């Protein structure tokens, strides 16, 4: 009788223990393939994001866009509605509506928001560029206008933005003239190089709690660290900003890639993230997409042409995500749109045509890249992938 009771109790205890940890053939959760990207990313305390096109988000005839944006992602970026030309189309008249709607969407779906963008040479309102051209706005006035813009925008969204892209795409490319990398564009021309430090200081004064980022493209891997190496130039610039006490908290690497290029591997991408985080900075991939040439064969539906491109695209998404997972200060991995139905790529690269850049096809079917990202999130962990280190805003 006693033995019977002991055996019975042991069976019950075992059953209890096994209940807590479900008995699985491979000690894995068999539902993993059906979980969302955001659920899987949360294991690493990593945010997974997308740029959001507000016109599409509001389009009731296209409900899948909204559903996927809400269910798969834990952070969102305004693709266009936080840019200066949208926020202040007429001098002194702010149009907060579309951006506020995105903030509202994010709040409802428990998503963080990346603010994009405070200082950039593109998508500036005509009143500003024309005023500078016709001389009604001089450089001293321009500096005040920039300061007021940053202050007004950051204050409006105070407490609602996790990371701000404070300065975007300030650094030239090797194909620019001169080919040695330099600060390019409207703001550097008119205000000199000091505008970058100023912008971070003004943003910090307006919101002490947002993380402040420098953001750029083609900085995913180091080159020869010479005068034409944009990644090296950007790293050196970030180092100098840190050394001068500028309140910069992170560097965003956009991650606009193409399968027709040589590209790089996860170790090369990680080397750059580690270099930035060794400066005490957070990192993020902020605009990932991997486009392909739309050859005649691709457009005709020839699988011999399509398959290698879809596979190469998936591989490149994976390279960036693996690097991000391995760098504990890489806080977020954001894709620049998630469906080929609504991607900036075909509109921008038309001669020759490019496309196929996102995680889902035009019919919202997940592509190989989607499952590559999912597998990276699911099948990674210690010792080389550890949870994120929280970044504190620098004063
Ligand atoms: O995706 C954006 C597209 O809808 C706009 O027409 C374009 C205008 O410049 O900007 C695109 O987003 C860019 C982002 O703001 C900064 N990095 C490059 C992105 C792709 O061009």
Automatic annotation (TrEMBL):
GO terms for molecular function: endo-1,4-beta-xylanase activity. Pfam families: Glyco_hydro_10. Belongs to the glycosyl hydrolase 10 (cellulase F) family. Its EC number is 3.2.1.8. Residues 1-20 form the signal peptide. The keyword Hydrolase applies. One of its GO terms (biological process) is xylan catabolic process. Residues 51-376 form the GH10 domain. It catalyses: Endohydrolysis of (1->4)-beta-D-xylosidic linkages in xylans. It is an enzyme of class 3 (hydrolase). It comes from the Bacteria. This is Beta-xylanase. SMART domains: Glyco_10.
